[in-house]
Design a protein that fits this description.
The complex is a heterodimer of chains A (196) and B (575).
Chain A: H1 12-23, H2 30-42, E1 50-53, E2 75-80, E3 96-100, H3 108-113, E4 118-122, E5 134-136, E6 141-143, E7 150-152, E8 158-161, E9 173-176, E10 179-182
Antiparallel strand pairs in A: 1-2, 2-3, 3-4, 5-6, 6-7, 7-8, 9-10
Chain B: H1 2-14, H2 19-25, H3 35-39, E1 58-59, E2 72-79, E3 91-93, E4 96-101, E5 105-110, E6 116-121, E7 139-141, E8 144-148, E9 153-158, E10 164-169, E11 184-186, E12 189-193, E13 204-209, E14 215-220, E15 250-252, E16 257-261, E17 282-287, E18 293-298, E19 314-320, E20 323-331, E21 336-342, E22 347-354, E23 361-364, E24 371-373, E25 384-387, E26 401-403, E27 408-414, E28 417-422, E29 445-448, E30 456-462, E31 467-474, E32 483-485, E33 489-492, E34 499-504, E35 510-515, E36 525-529, E37 532-539, H4 543-556, E38 567-573
Parallel strand pairs in B: 1-32
Antiparallel strand pairs in B: 2-38, 3-4, 4-5, 5-6, 7-8, 8-9, 9-10, 11-12, 12-13, 13-14, 15-16, 16-17, 17-18, 19-20, 20-21, 21-22, 23-24, 25-28, 26-27, 27-30, 28-29, 30-31, 32-33, 33-34, 34-35, 36-37, 37-38
The chains are: A alpha+beta (196), B mainly beta (575).
């Protein structure tokens, strides 16, 4: 089965239309605007995206450093385009798990991607796509309640136990204006193998 | 003729042509599956999920017997290329076998040689959640077969070529609806039920026209406003109350009724939805033409234990008090063996008795069958409660079997297991497509009773007396669906040692075992081609058997590896 692109972009045709429209100073038809917004909502996290609460009472609100106490528990976030303030919540695969850990406990790769000890990973299990997690604070690990795969968030979310075939894709972070901010693309493709 | 054509196809496959292309050029000779054939399946075929509409898991074939079963050997195997739980039976129509696997794949094979005829694979959405990555089989009708998928589609395939005839979107998988069961086909209707109780769906059963896939009727398992039973759900809880249906119904053509088992309510804690919660944990009798509910029996009210009663009762007629009862027999997940009487407009309670240790029910009303509970053993919001049997019950989905020669019911049971559930003070708010359980998940544990010597059991119950006649004990759990045969055997897998087992149906003596590639939770079937009897099963561990193993490993501090990967095994007697 062909692999999907990990970072779907604006389609070339649409990009061309947008460019043309902008260069000619034309007002875009409403349908075009809606389409462009839809694409932004589906696109994977981009550099400089801010992060917002994915659910709960503060759904859609910006996540700042004070929302992430040391030692967890993790939050689930969606990325948000910082300019247009479009939340990229039209793909379940954009859910991001955020937690602040002791930087001295992180391995080299994880520390390099972390910001103020905050690490970020795809929140979608690589086994069969579940997206809720049981936090195990003593070990800084998370366990998927669906089939009990366990990942070590200190070490690039490597698989410790269970049927997951690979680690959770990591997302590099930086801090901008007191808020964790996306600093790169997912390292790997979020989601599970649909082909069996 | 058909075998010869298949041989030609197989040869063509060897020289590298794709199966779909091949089939299009050289169609397979195929015996249309008529209503009459479904009503009276030939002994050499296995035309539906449990072999017949009664749901017996019984093959009349008698070539393989207790005297010769030691000579059983594999004659061919086929790797499915898939991991996870392989639960579907090999379904056979005049020498052609159809098998579904996890990840919504169907393979058509020459049942005698194992050569591939065609393969169909549905591409699944990348954002799908597969809480139960499995599929339980196809249904046959005319020259078509039907597949219900985990992304909530119902698909008709051409049985000769594997090409899609129609593809109906049953529901939106993003809201937690999914399908894992083998459809029931009767009177030209394809009937399915929806999974998704864990996500707070509102369950239903629906029928689709086999010709074009258009919906004919739809009956919710939770009554809506104005319908009888609606008041058993407080407030708005009926909208997200679960009550899924994920196993194939059995069918009584004389009564024109299909019988469906239903799941537990959502969230799991009963006090989050006080009331009986009709028709959760029940059997429903639905008119096949209209979907109208003609009768029901609720095994237990206001479920709080995750005791889905989705296993469909077997249609077994048994003697009781000097008359023959047209029965429904159900070894429940709640640990009781239920015997009911099916009628045109009612389901009546006959009797019930525990088949595993059950510490929750204090008594059963002798007239209505309604249980009374030990409230200390009923999980609830904000409390920690331990109960036995555990949340996987005395038996989960794995179907029991019935042999009309011995008149015994065979139950694949798990004894001595208990669960501890911790209820949230109040459930997390409902969100479409997200788990809606009302429990503190990380605090859920499993244990076994102090001093227990074993877990898995194969039990035989005499339906003429209602008494247990023998029990075989397995050290660890048993997740083995039952096949029983006219030759006097019971076949099952289900153990974590990868074995496929044969027992004497009359005495319970262990006669044969064979170690396969993986653990077996597949439904076995039996068929014959050219006068030779075969026994077939898929080996491929996963889903709830794997989950239970993980829970038990946590309890015991062990790490048990049961390898994954699906293989179809076909056995016959060595000459």
């Amino acid at each position: 089965m062909p692999r999907r692109r990990s970072v779907p972009d604006l389609r070339p045709a649409r990009r061309a239309v947008l460019k043309l429209a902008v260069s000619m100073g034309l007002a875009l038809p409403v349908a075009g605007l809606v389409g462009a917004q839809d694409d932004r909502r589906k696109a994977r996290p981009q550099v400089n995206d801010r992060l917002v609460f994915a659910g709960g009472d503060r759904k859609g609100q910006l996540i700042t450093l004070v929302d992430l106490p040391a030692g967890g528990p993790p939050l689930t976030a969606y990325p948000m385009d910082p300019t247009a303030r479009v939340v990229r919540d039209d793909s379940r695969l954009n859910q991001i798990l955020l937690v602040r850990l002791d930087p001295t406990e992180l391995n080299g790769d994880t520390r390099a991607r972390a910001a103020d000890g905050i690490v970020a990973y795809s929140a979608v299990c690589t086994h069969t796509g579940c997206d809720v997690w049981d936090w195990q604070p003593a070990s800084s690990t998370i366990k998927c309640p669906c089939h009990f795969s366990e990942f070590d968030l200190k070490e690039s979310a490597r698989v410790l136990n269970g049927p997951a075939p690979r680690r959770l894709p990591a997302l590099p972070l930086k801090v901008v204006d007191g808020a964790p901010t996306v600093a790169g693309s997912f390292v790997g493709r979020p989601g599970f193998e649909t082909g069996g | 003729m058909s075998v010869r054509r298949l041989a030609i196809l197989s040869f063509a496959l060897l020289i590298g042509l794709g199966p779909t292309m091949l089939a299009a050029q050289s169609p397979v000779s195929y015996s249309a599956v008529t209503e009459q054939r479904l009503l009276n399946p030939e002994p050499h075929n296995w035309l539906m999920y449990r072999g017949n509409f009664n749901g017996w898991g019984y093959s009349p074939l008698d070539q393989i017997t207790p005297a010769n079963v030691k000579k059983l050997v594999p004659v061919w195997t086929f790797s499915t290329g898939a991991n996870e739980g392989h639960q579907a039976p090999p379904i056979v129509n005049n020498g052609i076998m159809f098998v579904t696997t996890p990840h919504q794949q169907v393979v058509a094979l020459n049942a005698k040689t194992g050569d591939l005829i065609w393969r169909y694979k549905k591409e699944l959405p990348e954002d799908l959640v597969q809480l139960h990555p499995t599929n339980r089989g196809v249904a046959l009708w005319e020259d078509r077969l039907f597949l219900a998928t985990v992304d909530a589609h119902l698909i008709a395939l051409d049985a000769k070529t594997g090409t899609v005839v129609w593809d109906t979107t049953v529901d939106n998988y993003k809201n937690g609806y999914y399908l894992t069961l083998a459809p029931l086909v009767a009177k030209g209707k394809v009937m399915i039920g929806t999974s998704g109780g864990e996500f707070g769906i509102r369950g239903y059963i629906a029928a689709f026209d086999a010709k074009d896939g258009k919906q004919v009727w739809k009956t919710h398992t939770i009554p809506g406003p104005g319908e009888p039973g609606h008041d058993s759900w407080p407030g708005e809880t009926w909208k997200t109350g679960g009550v899924s249906v994920w196993l194939t119904a059995h069918y009584d053509p004389q009564l024109n009724l299909s019988f469906w088992g239903t799941g537990n309510g959502a969230p799991w804690m009963g006090d989050m939805r006080p009331g009986d919660n009709l028709y959760s944990a029940s059997v429903l009798a639905l008119d096949v033409d209209t979907g109208k509910i003609r009768g029901y029996h609720q095994y237990h009210w206001n479920d709080s234990w995750d005791w889905d009663e989705v296993s469909t009762p077997l249609l077994i007629d048994f003697p009781k008090d000097g008359r023959t009862v047209k029965g429904l027999v159900h070894p429940g997940r709640n640990g009781y063996l239920w015997r009911l009487e099916r009628g045109a407009d009612s389901i009546k309670f006959v009797d019930a008795r525990p088949y595993v240790t059950q510490e929750v029910f204090t008594k059963i009303d002798p007239v209505t069958g309604r249980p009374t509970y030990n409230e200390e053993r009923k999980p609830r919001a904000g409390a920690t409660v331990t109960f036995c049997p555990g949340l996987w019950g005395g038996k989960d989905w794995t179907p029991a079997g019935y042999n009309p020669k011995t008149q015994y019911l065979y139950i694949p049971a798990n004894e001595n297991l208990c669960s501890t559930l911790v209820g949230q003070p109040r459930p997390d708010p409902y969100e479409p497509g997200k788990p809606y359980l009302g429990i503190e998940r990380p605090k859920t544990t499993m244990s076994w009773r102090q001093g227990a010597s074993h877990i898995g059991e194969l039990q035989a119950w005499d339906m003429t007396t209602g008494q247990r006649v023998w029990t075989h004990k397995f050290p660890f759990m048993n997740w083995g669906p039952i096949l029983t045969t006219g030759g006097g055997l019971v076949f099952l897998g289900g153990t974590n040692d990868r074995n496929f087992w044969a027992f004497d149906a009359k005495t319970g003596s262990e006669l044969w075992k064979f170690k396969t590639n993986s653990g077996i939770t597949g439904v076995p079937s039996s068929f014959a081609v050219d006068g030779v009897q075969y026994v077939a099963v898929q080996s491929g561990w996963g889903v709830d058997a794997q989950r239970m193993q993980a829970r038990l490993d946590t309890f015991r501090g062990t790490k048990t590896e049961v390898p994954q990967g699906g293989v179809i095994w076909v056995f016959a007697l060595r000459d």
